[in-house]
């Protein structure tokens, strides 16, 4: 018998993995490079890290446009140009003699990221996978998390061996060679390939979590804005955006509050990263098999226990590393769970338009809530309040998200009933 041809969706997933890894390469530009650049240019740390805020603001402005372009244009061409713009911005960082040049690169990277990462990946996965959506999204984000670990280690070695300017050149050119040609050739929409999405032709026996139902039902953007379920789902995503910022202070907590060495702080942060890699793979499958509520519960259990362990570590540092690993196992709630909650709440039909709007708020709240988390230590001398805030955010996300999903089920049932009776939708 002739072997069954592998579905093209898996080739697209390979492209998504390369896009996610590219994002890790490019974002490491604000990691190990901070100290050598600040020392070389004589600028303040805050002046250099302003790049992150510039990127976030630029992305937020362009998300609605990106959502439209990615569903109507040739996605391979769009994402190829977006990746090239980001790598060009990174390459140019190696040439600047003033901090203001880095701000220009921040805009370039922000524009490219708007069309290739946080909005694009969920939209592309939704476009190509009507089954195993969570697994596909989890795989893409997990490879990105693994890439971040490798890139941080690699960038440190390159800076030490060749200097920060040449390190930028090497990472930008190397990353572009690895990702851009493959994405340019193989990233396509189902319409361009001429095939249905993965799982679209399979009968579905699952409950309301089915992707088959999602493909038939979906709120328009105008309808969503009038529904409480939309705002509850959005608040859920915002809770994840704020809550996942807390683990970013692990290294600082380890060195400043616990008095450990910088090396030990790096080990603690690596434990979080390793857990996050595992989380992406596991969380997507949990959503596919047990539903979106199970995925939200996963976040409360692992992130809640991890943050609780951090509180215990204040008095006994033996809890630190296990707590970091547990936090990491809940570390993909924003990148994996948030888009899945939104997709299930509003349906898959007009998901791209709605998710692009939601990501404006998600990105802005994440960008502007991260720094204030550090105020807990500045005002009280401990990060205990920050850890409690994180637990509260994940618990609140579970409550709000569950209500949104229940309301969505009622909308689906009403839609199905109208379909059967021939009433207008």
From TrEMBL:
<feature type="transmembrane region" description="Helical">
    <location>
        <begin position="45"/>
        <end position="63"/>
    </location>
</feature>
<feature type="transmembrane region" description="Helical">
    <location>
        <begin position="295"/>
        <end position="314"/>
    </location>
</feature>
<feature type="domain" description="Major facilitator superfamily (MFS) profile">
    <location>
        <begin position="8"/>
        <end position="409"/>
    </location>
</feature>
<feature type="transmembrane region" description="Helical">
    <location>
        <begin position="385"/>
        <end position="405"/>
    </location>
</feature>
<feature type="transmembrane region" description="Helical">
    <location>
        <begin position="166"/>
        <end position="184"/>
    </location>
</feature>
<protein>
    <submittedName>
        <fullName>MFS transporter</fullName>
    </submittedName>
</protein>
<feature type="transmembrane region" description="Helical">
    <location>
        <begin position="137"/>
        <end position="160"/>
    </location>
</feature>
<feature type="transmembrane region" description="Helical">
    <location>
        <begin position="229"/>
        <end position="250"/>
    </location>
</feature>
<feature type="transmembrane region" description="Helical">
    <location>
        <begin position="75"/>
        <end position="96"/>
    </location>
</feature>
<dbReference type="InterPro" id="IPR011701">
    <property type="entry name" value="MFS"/>
</dbReference>
<feature type="transmembrane region" description="Helical">
    <location>
        <begin position="320"/>
        <end position="342"/>
    </location>
</feature>
<dbReference type="InterPro" id="IPR036259">
    <property type="entry name" value="MFS_trans_sf"/>
</dbReference>
<dbReference type="GO" id="GO:0005886">
    <property type="term" value="C:plasma membrane"/>
</dbReference>
<feature type="transmembrane region" description="Helical">
    <location>
        <begin position="354"/>
        <end position="373"/>
    </location>
</feature>
<dbReference type="InterPro" id="IPR020846">
    <property type="entry name" value="MFS_dom"/>
</dbReference>
<dbReference type="GO" id="GO:0022857">
    <property type="term" value="F:transmembrane transporter activity"/>
</dbReference>
<dbReference type="Pfam" id="PF07690">
    <property type="entry name" value="MFS_1"/>
</dbReference>
<dbReference type="InterPro" id="IPR050327">
    <property type="entry name" value="Proton-linked_MCT"/>
</dbReference>
<feature type="transmembrane region" description="Helical">
    <location>
        <begin position="102"/>
        <end position="125"/>
    </location>
</feature>
<keyword id="KW-0813">Transport</keyword>
<keyword id="KW-0812">Transmembrane</keyword>
<keyword id="KW-1133">Transmembrane helix</keyword>
<keyword id="KW-0472">Membrane</keyword>
<feature type="transmembrane region" description="Helical">
    <location>
        <begin position="262"/>
        <end position="283"/>
    </location>
</feature>
